[in-house]
Input
Amino acid sequence: MNDDKVKQKVKETFGKNAEKYIKSESHAKGDDLPLLVEWMQPQSNWIVLDIATGGGHVAKTLSPHVATVYATDLTEPMLSNTASHLSKVCTNIFYVIADAENLPFLEGTFDVVTCRIAPHHFPNPNKFIKEASRVLKPGGEFLLIDNVAPEEEHLGVFMNTVEKLRDESHVRCLSVNEWKELFASNGLQEIQSQNRKKRFQFPTWVGVTAKNQQQIDTVEQYILNADEELKTYFSIVMSENEDHVLSHQIDEWMVLCQKKVQ
Output
């Protein structure tokens, strides 16, 4: 699938499920939201860019602490829905339709750039990181939070296959080492990072993006057919008869970087 088709699929998926992402427990109430404030210590004069804002959870979290937040998203219905939810409580957020791989902002505009639980939908992560670095001021901070693939290839293939079966707009979760290589080649230096396991209750998780029962069954059967190594790594919990998936967990990485001063 070429890049344009991938991005169109993202628009279709998130346009249809905009309200679900506003209310999603894993998006709206993650422990990482208060933690990002603790890590960044935001200042009242900062101008922030939140890329692929989705339900606007990062933008909402940072809004009280900074001067202005620009919340961008590729999907207009998603962005419009988020704006309608936040506009009454967050008056310093501006909403801009934008492609993460081709940002409509001048070089060195922002004090902080953030992107949370979205880059696995981007066809070209290298372009995304290049753009994030470009629009950052020298010395500015970049915060990334996303699901990451294990370094072992077969574990990564399983994780990405599960995600793709559930969500047609999924492209690929990168590994931590792949992200670090992209940071290094774009002038971003890691300051702080944290790995964590994130557990999903299967019926809720699969229901966010699955279009029908057949798709849900396909995802569930693929997980049930996993070998013991995969079931152990992803901590797959099954029903007593082992005919249904109850929950599983994946890896998530949170990292704060600083743009090098030339």
The first strand starts at residue 47 and ends at 51. Residues 3-16 form the longest helix (14 residues). Strands lie at 47-51, 68-73, 93-97, 110-116, 136-148, 188-201, 237-238, 245-259.
